[in-house]
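Customer escalation, tier 2.

The customer says the design service returned an amino acid string that "doesn't look like it belongs to this structure." They asked us to rerun it and document both sides in this ticket. The original structure tokens are below, unchanged.
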């Protein structure tokens, strides 16, 4: 039986998809004929330019429906690839997230119309998501009910794939009723990028770069984060195993640039240190020139070994993204982020010394944040401005607004803090929350603090990542808030809010 693993458009064209590279290799190691088709990459080359490719962003994100012209273009593109798809018996479609839903449904409808006998299997977090855990009515469930797929895989697919290949599935079209999690990640095969033409990816200035995954889940339990909802148990590969994969891609494909998909690349300090030791030695012996980046956690400086960052730099660690969130030690501790401004001071100096770059990720207006806490955040821009000047801090993502994701510690705090939602046209709005335990932090105040944070970052020349896009979200929130208070005839903050909106003009 011939298998085709398909990646759908996802608005990320800089690297080949790691999920389908793994799935393809797992199918191959089980002795089955397999090939991969990256429709995301194909769409990028099908369209006239990068701007045309990114113009579909709002469609994939569900913010608007396609125009008739866009719909015809999408269907024309899919039809163009049907002859290649027709050669295979089983089609494995990777649904990486909710933004993959529109194209996946277009694709499956076209396959059912023109290639009705093909077996369609959906996988990836976007196929099952948390809805499967709670209701059994996620995207995969709905697609199966519509007759647009034969089954969908729940959880990590590597173990379930064998069951599907052996035709062991339940009557509901699910390979497993509950998400499966693999304990020993070292037993998995390396992603096989031989299925892709790496020269066709848009690598910007980096040269060839691929994704790599060193762990699944997260060692932290930040109160606002829902990673543990999907992956309850943190598991990690050995550092030597990760280094071996990177060396494998270098020796087979000449790849030296890597982007870690991990929630935290240094979630396990043991694995991280062992990986750095192995890569540093290989870099020295072979002059490979590895360069890698990913999500990082600042740890208390007393937990770090001597010459830690010298080894990280020698191994190729170049760019880290850190959820600093706030300038207030108190709020950061309440978020369950166990590091302080002094820890940041120490590690920024080490990054500066060893030519390692960092991006800050921020979250303004936490549930318990006071004006004094917010003032601490404003002070951080001056405190670390010198690292902006040296280029160590490459930028900052100021985020949008705090929301209460299901099954997070923050959601469980809602009742005790008296969280309630304002209504728009009679319906509660997730982003328009207020709480009785911290009444001064109303929606208008959260918007004000977000704007003040933006202005302070500009004042000290911090590069703001996606600044215009983020501010547009804040403006939308402000307008919805104005609409809400007008509907409820609350006029006390209306004037202030309208003055606040002048910032966006």
């Amino acid at each position: 039986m011939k298998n085709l693993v398909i990646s759908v458009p996802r608005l990320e064209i800089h690297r080949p998809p790691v999920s389908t590279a793994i799935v393809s290799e797992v199918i191959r190691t089980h002795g089955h004929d397999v090939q991969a088709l990256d429709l995301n990459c194909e769409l990028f080359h099908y369209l006239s330019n990068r701007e045309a490719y990114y113009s579909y962003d709002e469609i994939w994100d569900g913010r608007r429906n396609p125009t008739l012209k866009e719909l015809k273009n999408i269907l024309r593109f899919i039809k163009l690839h049907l002859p290649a798809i027709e050669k295979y018996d089983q089609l494995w479609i990777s649904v990486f997230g909710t933004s993959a839903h529109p194209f996946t449904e277009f694709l499956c409808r076209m396959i059912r119309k023109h290639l009705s006998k093909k077996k369609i299997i959906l996988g990836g977090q976007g196929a099952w998501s948390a809805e499967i855990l709670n209701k059994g009515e996620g995207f995969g469930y709905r697609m199966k009910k519509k007759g647009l797929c034969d089954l969908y895989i729940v959880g990590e697919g590597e173990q379930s794939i064998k069951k599907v290949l052996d035709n062991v599935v339940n009557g509901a079209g699910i390979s497993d009723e509950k998400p499966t999690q693999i304990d020993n990640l070292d037993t998995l095969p390396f992603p096989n990028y031989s299925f892709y033409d790496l020269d066709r990816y848009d690598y910007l200035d980096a040269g060839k770069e691929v994704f790599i995954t060193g762990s699944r889940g997260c060692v932290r339990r930040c109160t606002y984060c829902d990673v543990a909802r999907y992956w309850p148990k943190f598991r990690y590969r050995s550092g030597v195993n990760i280094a071996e994969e990177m060396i494998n891609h270098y020796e087979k494909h000449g790849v030296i640039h890597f982007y870690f998909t991990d929630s935290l690349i240094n979630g396990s300090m043991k694995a991280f240190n062992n990986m750095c030791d192995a890569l540093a030695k290989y870099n020295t012996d072979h002059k490979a020139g590895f360069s890698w980046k990913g999500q990082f956690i600042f740890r208390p400086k007393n937990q770090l070994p001597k010459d830690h960052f010298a080894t990280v730099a020698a191994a190729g660690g170049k760019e880290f993204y850190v959820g600093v969130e706030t300038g207030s030690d108190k709020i950061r501790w309440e978020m369950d982020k166990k590091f302080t401004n002094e820890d940041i001071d120490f590690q920024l100096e080490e990054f500066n010394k060893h030519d390692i770059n960092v991006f800050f990720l921020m979250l303004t207006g936490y549930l318990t944040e006071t004006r004094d806490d917010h003032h601490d955040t404003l002070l951080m821009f001056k405190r670390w401005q010198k690292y902006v000047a040296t280029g160590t801090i490459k930028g900052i993502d100021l985020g949008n607004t705090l929301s209460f994701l299901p099954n997070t510690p923050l959601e469980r705090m809602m009742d005790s803090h008296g969280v309630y939602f304002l209504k728009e046209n009679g319906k509660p709005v997730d982003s328009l929350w207020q709480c009785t335990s911290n009444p001064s932090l109303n929606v208008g105040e959260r918007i004000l603090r977000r704007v003040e944070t933006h202005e302070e970052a500009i004042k000290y020349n911090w590069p703001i990542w996606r600044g215009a896009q983020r501010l547009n979200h804040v403006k939308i929130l402000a307008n919805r808030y104005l609409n809400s208070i007008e509907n409820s005839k609350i006029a006390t903050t209306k004037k202030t809010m309208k003055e606040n909106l002048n910032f966006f003009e």
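Tier 2 assessment: The sequence is consistent with the input. Residues 217 and 411 are 19 Å apart (CA to CA). Residues 2-182 form a domain with the Rossmann fold fold (CATH 3.40.50.280). Sent an explanation to the customer and offered a walkthrough call.
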